[in-house]
């Protein structure tokens, strides 16, 4: 179960992210985003699909880089409400990082105009497989 203090923190972060007042970055890990706080602490949120559903993992680091709190929706007995809170948070972070709203608005504005859209691109055929692709190891 998600501790109440952590839940409040997630809700505040979601709100700040939705208001575009939090700058998230991607990490080297697939599906993971990181927010670095000015005091040196950081928060990461990750998503993966272990058993045909999305699982989420939240980690809070202190200014020394030590993990001080973590929550895993797969292993920490997340309630339906916990899952929903973390899922909404992850979607907010993902949408913020990828600028989903801005991109959709831009597409809408472009498609609503009288301008011709698209551009012709030169076709580049795929490269043939190299000899090394046929090696058995």
Task: Indicate the overall shape.
Answer: extended
Q: SSE order, as H and E?
A: HEEEEEHH
Low-pLDDT runs: none
Query: How many helices?
Result: 3
Cα-atom Rg, whole angstroms?
20 Å
* Major β-sheet strand ordering: 1-2-3-4-5
Q: Can you give a write-up of this model?
A:
The relative contact order is 0.14. Helix 1 packs parallel to helix 2 (80-98). Helices cover 34% and strands 20% of the residues. Strands 1-2-3-4-5 form a five-stranded antiparallel sheet, with helices on one face. The chain is α+β, with helices and mostly antiparallel strands and 137 residues long. The chain is built from three helices and five strands.
Topology:
Elements: H1 4-18, E1 25-26, E2 32-36, E3 42-48, E4 55-61, E5 67-72, H2 80-98, H3 100-112
Antiparallel strand pairs: 1-2, 2-3, 3-4, 4-5
Helix pairs in contact: 1-2
């Amino acid at each position: 179960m998600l501790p109440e203090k952590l839940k409040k923190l997630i809700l505040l972060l979601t709100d700040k992210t939705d208001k575009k007042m939090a700058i998230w970055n991607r990490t080297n890990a697939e599906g993971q985003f990181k927010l670095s706080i000015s005091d040196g602490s950081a928060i990461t949120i990750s998503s993966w699909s272990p058993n045909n559903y999305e699982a989420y993992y939240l980690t809070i680091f202190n200014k020394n880089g030590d993990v001080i709190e973590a929550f895993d929706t797969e292993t920490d007995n997340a309630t339906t409400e916990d899952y929903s809170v973390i899922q909404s948070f992850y979607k907010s972070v993902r949408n913020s990082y990828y600028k989903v709203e801005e991109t959709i608005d831009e597409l809408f504005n472009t498609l609503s105009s009288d301008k011709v859209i698209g551009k012709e691109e030169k076709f580049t055929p795929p490269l043939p497989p190299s000899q090394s692709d046929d090696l058995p190891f």
